[in-house]
Automatic annotation (TrEMBL):
SUPFAM superfamilies for the chain: Periplasmic binding protein-like II
InterPro entries, per database record: Bact_solute-bd_prot1, SBP
CC annotations in GO: periplasmic space
Lineage: Bacteria, Pseudomonadati, Pseudomonadota, Alphaproteobacteria, Hyphomicrobiales
Signal peptide span: 1-27
Keyword field: Periplasm, Signal
Segments traversing the membrane: none
Protein's UniProt name: sn-glycerol-3-phosphate-binding periplasmic protein UgpB
Highest taxon, organism lineage: Bacteria
Amino acid sequence: MKFIFKSLRLAASTAAFTLGTAISAYAVDLQFYFPVAVGGMAAQTIEELTAEYAAANPDVNIDAVYAGSYQDTVSKALTAARGGNPPQLSVILSVDMFTLIDEDVILAFDDIANSEEDKKWLDSFYPAFMKNSQTGGKTYGIPFQRSTPVLYWNKEAFKAAGLDAEKAPATWEEMVSMGKVLVKKDASGNVTQWGVRIPSSGFPYWLFQGLTTENDVILANADGNQTDFDNPKVVEALEYLVDLSAKHGVMAPGIIEWGATPKAFFEGNTAMIWTSTGNLTNVRNNAPFEFGVAMLPANKRRGAPTGGGNFYIFKDSSEEQEKASIDFVKWITAPKQAAKWSMATGYVAPSPAAWETDEMKAYVADFPPALVAREQLDHAVAELSTYQNQRVTRIFNDALHSAITGKKSAEDALKSAQKDADRILSEYR
């Protein structure tokens, strides 16, 4: 789906007709790709924000394209860039940074935003989000639609099981022990409520990275050219994930669908879920029970990966388009706009200043769970990101699936994945 704000398009068309020329009536035309698949409220809010900017900057025409999923968006942006017609800017996954650099299609923000004021702006975001935004001493992405996974729990289910409804599991051991108490079965022995649900479809590496981080191991280096998939700590984390079903019986066996997880939570099929803080508004609006939000449970340490999308500026833009793109990104990530985006979607406002706005202070006073993901940033690590990222993560995801479904042991699956990743990444070292 594509939208161009009708008032702008009409003005441009009228002016062009009047002047008898095909050139734009605006000083600058920008094309902006946005991953609409993040949900209805997100799409509505990004449209409102973009329209607000356009109204305040009548010389800038923004052609905002709903590009589909994150995968669709990066694919369409790369296809357009290879064809010589890239968008000027796009929201694309932070982990695609190395791919975009490798394709030589994006600009470093430092190269076009290098005043003292610009440098302060680049330093204004949470350091945890910049781990997937910077490499080689340069900034390639600006955090916007960012998240971490968190744990949601059904307080009513906890009460019914005789647990403290205000206390989420703080450790791996507690998640197992609480999970066992929370499992419910019918008269035939069929499970009607599982203890916990950790999705393993779509991008299983991301939630699994919560476990590896808690087990104090990093999956890839900061240069994006070396993975550590077969580290014994990674093997131990995968064995724990498999054991939640195979040994402890607190989670459904097999591959668990990402998209169906909030619905399973709402319908009482599971008492706890791991999912993105980007689902926070969805859960708040649709859970028919009182719920809680907590950091992921610790093992050797607390921790979780960051996630979500960054703004990128593409090459082959005019100097005027580059300046307008920077101005738009600065505006939409400014505290007031970032706070509006966070409140509408549940994504984490990417700078401390956004949390100091009156609107955000009132929001968290009314809804304290919104603070959990922000507080977890103190323990966060970079999301798995490498050169040839889609190929490498596909290999890793396949390894996770083979262990989860019992086709291979965790150790064998991860050794094979590391061998394949080495083969791909060796040329980047």
